[in-house]
Amino acid sequence: MTPWLPFPIVSLSLCALWLLLNQTLDPANLLFGALLGIAVPLLTRRLQPFGYPRMRAPLTFLRLMWMAFVEIVRSCFNVSRIILFRDYETVNAQFIRVPLTIRDPYGLAMLSCLINMTPGTVWVEILPERHELSLHVFDLHDAQWWVETIKERYEAPLIQIFESEDDHATRA
Predict the structure, then answer these.
(1) Per residue in 62-90, pLDDT tens?
(2) Could you say which of 53, 95, 99, 135 is the most buried, measured as most Cβ atoms within 10 Å of its Cβ?
(3) Which CATH number covers residue 166?
């Protein structure tokens, strides 16, 4: 890490994204992509109060993304089936609370994105007094299943990805 390239992965990603969007590797676009990759992280680093997140477990991240993709597709079909074929009065829409262990702001943001991308669920808010997630489920059958699913499938991998052992030791 150098002062003019504080976040090399972000810089490389921005340059690659620029080249993909323009679908060319000509010198002008290569130069502009490189300038974007250098300038944007430098100009926006004050907007990141916690710095850029550190990914501690990239393979866990890839497994989580695959599992989330499968869950999103599955939920699309389930919600579509409920909307198209079920009687509205048999749908059991409910709010539930899920106790959270994760405290990392980037991990919480990713958890929020994963939950909100999945059809049939909406992250409502974090209740700060007990650090619980208020979640709306479109057709609730088993609240405990939802709590266990969010804690095991989503929160546990996010803790591995974003939080260190020191974070847990200071909380215990």
Answers:
(1) 999 999 999 999 999 999 999 999 998 89
(2) 135
(3) 3.30.70
